């Protein structure tokens, strides 16, 4: 089968035209390349460094001056003046030296000292002594006495009042209970009952200080509890 070709599709007729266009384009590029120029820019680094150095602010270094204290005043001048006094004055007063040494035959009266000490101890009230006062039979007997002797007031029972009453008193040289007072109370009815029970106590064994009976202050708590 024979291939038919259109005369318009044949490119051989336009070969010369394309060659001329290519030559024109190549020549134009060569001319532009020759005409292209470049410029070099030189920057002086020294000028930049000088400008930077000028712009930096120089801060002066200051130092506070030390204030020296004023010098001390000069010591007063000492005048070397000697007063010569004649030793012709007679003294009328004579120094008397008392003999304070004691002989073996001398007696010392200690009775007054003992009486003064006993008088002082008789009026003084001690808080703590060498031998504290003791209830007959000891602490156990004291608790039993309080439990059996206290009568709960009816008014306090009806009002539901209960609490602990602290009673302070003094055991004298004979063991008797004196000066009973309420140290910390709860209610007047309970306070009165606590005072009554304490004041009705039997005699205690008195406290002793240096083997002598003395007055000693004592505190007893009485607890009122509703059953």
UniProtKB/TrEMBL annotation:
UniProt xrefs under PANTHER family: PROTEIN TONB, PROTEIN TONB-RELATED
Superkingdom as given in the UniProt entry: Bacteria
Subcellular location: Cell inner membrane
Domain (TonB C-terminal) ranges: 137-227
One cellular-component annotation, GO: plasma membrane protein complex
GO BP annotation list: protein transport; siderophore transport; transmembrane transport
Coiled coil: none
InterPro entries: TonB, TonB-dependent_transducer, TonB/TolA_C, TonB_C
Keywords: Cell inner membrane, Cell membrane, Membrane, Protein transport, Transmembrane, Transmembrane helix, Transport
Transmembrane segments: 21-38
GO molecular function, one term: energy transducer activity
Record protein name field: Ferric siderophore transport system, periplasmic binding protein TonB
Pfam families, alphabetized: TonB_C (PF03544)
């Amino acid at each position: 089968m024979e291939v038919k070709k259109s005369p318009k599709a044949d490119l051989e007729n336009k070969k010369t035209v394309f060659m001329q266009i290519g030559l024109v384009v190549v020549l134009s590029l060569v001319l532009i390349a020759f005409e292209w120029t470049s410029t070099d820019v030189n920057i002086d680094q020294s000028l930049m460094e000088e400008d930077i150095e000028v712009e930096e602010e120089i801060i002066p270094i200051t130092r506070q001056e030390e204030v020296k204290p004023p010098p001390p005043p000069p010591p007063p001048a000492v005048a070397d003046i000697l007063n010569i006094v004649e030793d012709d004055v007679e003294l009328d007063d004579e120094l008397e030296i008392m003999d304070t040494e004691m002989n073996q035959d001398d007696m010392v009266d200690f009775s007054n000292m003992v009486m003064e000490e006993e008088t002082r101890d008789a009026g003084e009230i001690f808080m703590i002594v060498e031998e504290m006062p003791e209830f007959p039979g000891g602490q156990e007997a004291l608790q039993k006495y309080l439990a059996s002797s206290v009568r709960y007031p009816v008014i306090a029972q009806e009002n539901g009042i209960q609490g602990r009453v602290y009673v302070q008193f003094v055991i004298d040289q004979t063991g008797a209970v004196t000066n009973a007072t309420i140290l910390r109370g709860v209610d007047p009815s309970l306070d009165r009952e606590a005072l009554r029970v304490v004041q009705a106590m039997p005699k205690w064994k008195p406290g002793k200080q240096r083997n002598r009976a003395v007055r000693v202050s004592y505190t007893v708590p009485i607890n009122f509890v509703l059953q």
